[in-house]
Amino acid sequence: MRAYSISRIRVFYTLILIASLADAGSGAFAAAVHGGDSAAIIPLVDASVAHRDDNLLSYTVNEHYRVYRGADHEHPAAEMVVRTLYRKDTGKTFTILSQSGSHLLLTEVLGHVLDSETLMTQPVNRSRVVLTSLNYTMRANGSENVNGIDCVRISIDPKTRSPYLFKGTIWVNAKDGDIVKLEGVTSKSASVLTGATQVSRVYEVIHGVPMATHATADASSWLLGATTIDIDYTGYEMTMQATTPAAGH
User: Fold this and answer.
1) For the domain bounded by 52-240, which CATH number is listed?
2) Residue 217: which of 206, 208, 207, 228 has the closest Cα?
3) pTM for this model (two decimals)
4) Does residue 243 sit in helix, strand or coil?
5) What is the CA radius of gyration of the chain?
6) 24, exposed or middle or buried, with CB in 10 Å at 0-12, 13-18, 19+?
7) 27-50 pLDDT, tens per residue?
């Protein structure tokens, strides 16, 4: 008997739900999504995440990190460029291509970021941090145009507290539930010596799935003071597995 992943099962039931809603009339369903109906849009969000996780086998991307101190957002105190390799069965690994600036920031800030990404993208941990209704309480609260895309605005509140889960807002494409933007604060500080981190992330659809293209993270600690990390993601090379598209794709 063929074994199905939990994410595939969720996609299957989401398709059934979408079909049943559509039976009432496609216009009614579209109006429900654009009107901020949580029951209409949140299954699309879950299906989009499952579609990405099932179909994205691997990718490489260049990540350019800049760390700013205090109010100076023009002159980075440290910079690092890494080549990231993601594999579905193992998670992320990083190769540092170049680095400059403060050794303390390179090791204690950016080094910690890379270590955390390595840990949380491992298969055993990944399902606990993805943006789905399994990990978050989600409530749609209106529509908004973001970068030319008609989006539904959804508040997210993690069901458990973690430095890797956010309390805030996501904007998703009203047609298919793909994430377009995230803004939030970590629901738990990484340590007692630091405050919560304010995060913003922008996504674009590449090869049919949403991928991060830019992110910022603002934090403060007794040792480093106010610190901002700015990240650009460029040059994606992706390996996809062709399967049944998610609802809306």
Assistant:
1) 2.50.20
2) 228
3) 0.81
4) coil
5) 19
6) exposed
7) 443 545 555 577 889 999 999 999
